[in-house]
Amino acid sequence: MGLANFVLPLLGTGRPTRRGSVTRWAGTDLASRIETFENREDFEASLNGPVTVAMFSSSMCGPCFLVEPKIEEMAADFANSGVKIVKVSLTPGKNAKALKPLYSDMEVRELPTFIIYKDGEVQ
After folding, report:
1. Residues of the chain whose pLDDT is less than 70?
2. Which helix (H) or strand (E) holds 113?
C-alpha cells in the first residue's frame, strides 16, 4: 500500500492531479519542497500544518536514497493540497547525538521510516 493511501484519507480529498511525468529531480525545484531537519527542535516546530509526512532517514541509508526521488515527486504532487513532507536526516558524526533520542522516542527502528502527523499528532 502506497504512502498516498495513508495521506489522502487524512485530507478528505481524492487523488492528487499530476502535471506530467517527473523524471529528473536534480537541478529542479522539487528538492526545495521538502524541508530537511537535523535537530529535534526545528522538526517539532515544523509540525504545524494540517498533515505532515515525516521521512526519517540517514545519509548512510541506501534505501533512503532509492526512495527519495519518489518522495520528492509526491511533495510536488501534494504541494497545493495542504500536505507537507519533511525529512529528518541522521548523519553519523554530525547530528547523531542530537537526533538519536528523537528516533528512539518515535520508535524508528528501520530506515526509511515514515510517520504521518495530523495537526501535530501522530496518526
Report:
1. 1-32
2. strand 113-118
